[in-house]
Amino acid sequence: MEQDAEAAQFLKEASLSVKKNAYFMRKAMDEDNLREALRYSAAMLGELRTSFLSPQRYYELYMQVFDELGNLEAYFADEQSKGRTLAELYELVQHAGNVLPRLYLMVAVGCLYIKAGGARSSDILKDLVEMTKGVQHPTRGLFLRAYLCQRSRGLLPDTGSPYAGEGGDIHDAVDFLLTNFMEMNKLWVRMQHQGAPRDRERREKERQQLQDLVGKNLTYISQLDGLTFELYAGSVLPRLLEQVVSCKDELAQQYLMQAVIQGFPDAFHLASLDALLSALPELQSGVKLHAVMASLMDRLARYAASDPSVVGQLLERHAFEKFVESISKVAELHGDIPAVSLVEMYAALMRFTEGVHPDKLENVNRVLGACQRGLAGKGLGGDAKAEKQLVALLSMPLGSRDAVTVLSLDQYPPLMGLLSRRTHKDMALKVVTTTLAQGTCVSSLESVEMLFKFIAPLVQEAEDDDDMDEEDIEEEQVMVARMLHQLTAPTPGLQFAILRAARAHLELGSPARLKHTYPALAFCGLKALRRLNAAQQQQQSGAAADADASADANGAEKDAERAAPAAAPAAAAAADAAGDAVDAESALQWLLDVALQLAEVPAPMQALRLLLVCAHVASEEAGLEMLAYEFFEQAFTLYEESVADSRHKVTALQAIVGTLHRCYVFSADNRDALTQSVTSYAAKLLKRADQCRAACAASHLAWQEPPAAAADGEVAVAVPGRQPPVRDAQKVMAGLKRALKVVAAAKQQRAATARGGKGGAQHLPLYVEIVNHYLYYLARGVESMSVGVVQQLLELVGSELSQYDADLDAETRSYWQATQRHIQCLKAADPDKYAGLNA
What we know:
Blueprint lengths: L1 H29 L3 H13 L8 H27 L4 H7 L6 H17 L5 H11 L6 H14 L18 H21 L9 H23 L6 H19 L2 H14 L2 H6 L1 H7 L9 H18 L2 H8 L2 H15 L5 H18 L4 H15 L8 H12 L7 H5 L4 H5 L4 H18 L6 H10 L1 H4 L10 H15 L7 H15 L4 H40 L5 H23 L5 H16 L4 H17 L4 H17 L4 H16 L6 H16 L4 H12 L8 H4 L17 H24 L11 H17 L6 H17 L6 H20 L1 H4 L5
Helix pairs in contact: 1-2, 1-3, 2-5, 4-5, 5-6, 5-7, 6-8, 7-8, 7-9, 8-9, 8-10, 9-11, 10-11, 11-14, 13-16, 14-17, 16-17, 16-18, 17-18, 17-19, 19-22, 22-25, 23-26, 25-27, 26-27, 27-28, 27-29, 27-30, 29-30, 29-31, 30-31, 30-32, 32-33, 32-34, 33-34, 34-36, 34-37, 36-37, 37-38, 37-39
């Protein structure tokens, strides 16, 4: 801090001195006193002789002096109009007492001398670039040469320039800039060796502040109009690379290689690729070669994207192969190269091949293999940055190709194996996300095994998973569950083989994972089962068509011959559907196992719903009564043993009733057994209201409507074993009477517990619900449900509503009014049938 304060004070004093001398210099110029103007200008420039300022503060002082030099140059130009030649001025300024002011003045007058045409441009510039060697202090010398470079920019004998011809040619311009560059680079490199070793880090920062002064020469070379590729490849590039390699300074090599790559045209880089790549292994081990390689490959990739013809040139020059060879050579020569740098080089190479050769999958595999060989023996060393770069490398091919294709590359698994489990999990999640985003279908057993091998951290347990909360697990497993729907095979048999393989991997996970993935797995199985049933129905339809054709009296044999080819596709489809000898019964058995395993997670409500869905499929699509009964039996057992919450019991019972009501495959004995169990469950519910509603719902089990397809006049699917709809009016009435008894019991319970007030009206919504069930059955033509029976109930309900009218809540009142409107609509639609109803 003390040193900074002293430097700031010194800069302040130097700045004041510059202003003072500049004032007297301008005063002398106004008085046309050349000698005094030179004396004060030399004194002003003398402030730049300091070694005490850092490059940043020295730059502030330099810019102040630079602005004043503009006034001096204008004065020198006026002196020429007064009869004083610039040659005389050029000789005169050389008498300045100190070297640094003398050289600044010589540059100022020399540039005016060239502009006036008093001498050959090449001669003056050569003289100046040689004279400036007199200043060997790094900071002072760099700024002096930067001033020379900037002032001479428009005076170079470039092609098409007014200073070309007798003043020199493009070779002289290039030679001047290269000479100045090499001298500046030597000064820049020398800075690291000055001062104590403990200040090395500070000096490196100061050198970084000065690097643009050195690179300015390369910028001016690249902007020369006469710079051709022949001149660049024959003279400029060899001298540049020689200087870069010979300086043996990491900072200089890093910056200058980047300056060469970024400064010169892409076409030059493409044509001189061998020379550039051959210099890389000769650089110091501390140079970030991955950044240099990445810059070069990214520039060529953008060049190819802007001009399609460049792709062909890259192929002709075998650019990809040369990059692979160069990276391998660098890794071999610099055995201690950090893993992160090595991976970044191959990541840049992957970007290059993906941008230039997106259709060459073998290039992707080759990059992965080269990276794996480069990391062999040392791995990533626990470097988080290296892992991040490796994830980026592995992710690049997934952006333009489906995950299955990429994962099938033989060099992909070894690189994935280098990742830590946590990073492997992130990569696995990316694979799953890509699969979903691209809609990739995984259609072979081998691909499924490979996919689950890669995403193992998402489905299997590990010690470091203990810190995951339920929300994190759910987010991961939902992605896995969605991915299961992408496992789509061409035949149902193969589909079930794939699902069995997926299940084998999923069951390695914890119950917290299975409750999210098993339902998706089961519904994938149901989808495959429907495909299997459709194929079997197609086979049956084909067989029926064959039988009809063969029954024709005329030409039975010819018709059979014509029918055989037509039946072939159906038979082939059936054979495909059979797959690995899978049939509906074995598929449903597999689904039963999945549902029971889900129940053990435990996830009883999910398992119960799955059992009911499978029961309906077994009944209405497969026609397997015993399996459908088994599904219901397991659902009932789960209801009794695992569903404890009263709200869940109500929900589960509603699902059971709804599913059983839509099943037509059961014989009378089996249906009675299931219906009696449901009725028993309804009576055992905790709340009276739940008992009432469950009893009403259970009454529908005794009265089924025809299947929807048949009711709509469509041709019903021929399901083997389907029974006619159940129509038992006596059981319907018994169920509704039980509901009325429950309501009466609820009313008595309220009265007995002295809760008659406002709470005494809580049984009224149940009465209104029962009325609507009565009206439903009346409309359906249930024998025992007459208008008189319904009217008796309406009178009872009306009486109850009148009694508790003051306590009636708005929802119940609205419900009753809607029921009254419904009755009026019924009477309007069929006056004869509903004439006796009066609400």
